[in-house]
């Protein structure tokens, strides 16, 4: 009985370890894809480094708006943003068009990239 218990525990340990490894591999792939999608769809206005463009387009880098509304990013990417918003104490009021040609998964990849790269919110990493 002891041998079967030990084997079962060993199997469970190996299974869990492989799941964790796959999760990190998927996260790395998603982050790389998020970067590519961000560069193609977002960096023109928000810049490659996330710094934004003067008082026209808000920064994504260390943005208090994102830190206070991390789950809103997906919706903003898909449907856009209209009306005035305050980011790091500065008002921005130029409409952002939605990017409707992206799949929900691609939007999640961009959102994860923005949250992790620019705001260090890796607890919201997509799976």
Which helices and strands occur, and which strands form pairs?
Layout (H helix, E strand, L loop, with lengths): L1 H40 L1 H4 L17 H5 L4 H7 E2 L3 E3 L2 E3 L3 E2 L6 H16 L8
Antiparallel strand pairs: 1-4, 2-3
Quick description:
The chain is mostly helical and 127 residues long. 57% of the residues lie in helices and 8% in strands. The protein has one domain (2-124): Cytochrome Bc1 Complex, Chain D, domain 2 (Orthogonal Bundle).
Task: Report on the architecture of this protein.
The protein has 127 residues and is mostly helical. The chain has a single domain, classed as Cytochrome c-like domain (Cytochrome Bc1 Complex, Chain D, domain 2, Orthogonal Bundle). It is built from 5 helices and 4 strands. It has a two-stranded antiparallel ribbon with strand order 1-4. Helix 1 packs across helix 5 (104-119) and helix 4 (73-79) crosses helix 5.
Supply database-style keywords.
4 strands; mainly alpha; 127 residues; two-stranded antiparallel sheet; Cytochrome Bc1 Complex, Chain D, domain 2; single chain; 57% helix
CATH top level assignment: Mainly Alpha
Q: Mean of residue pLDDT?
A: 83
| Total number of domains | 1
**CATH topology (level 3) name:** Cytochrome Bc1 Complex, Chain D, domain 2
Structural class computed from helices and strand pairing: mainly alpha
> How many DSSP helices?
5
Assembly of the depicted chains: single chain
């Amino acid at each position: 009985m002891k041998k079967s218990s030990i084997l079962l525990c060993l199997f469970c340990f190996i299974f869990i370890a492989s799941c964790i490894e796959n999760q990190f591999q998927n996260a790395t792939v998603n982050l790389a894809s998020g970067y590519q999608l961000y560069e193609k769809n977002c960096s023109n206005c928000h810049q490659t480094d996330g710094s934004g463009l003067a008082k026209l387009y808000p920064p994504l880098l260390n943005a208090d708006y994102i830190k206070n509304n991390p789950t809103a990013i997906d919706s903003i990417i898909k449907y856009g943003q209209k009306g005035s918003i305050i980011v790091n104490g500065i008002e921005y009021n130029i409409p952002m068009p939605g990017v409707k040609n992206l799949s929900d998964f691609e939007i999640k990849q961009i959102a994860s990239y923005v949250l992790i790269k620019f705001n260090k919110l890796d607890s919201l990493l997509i799976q």
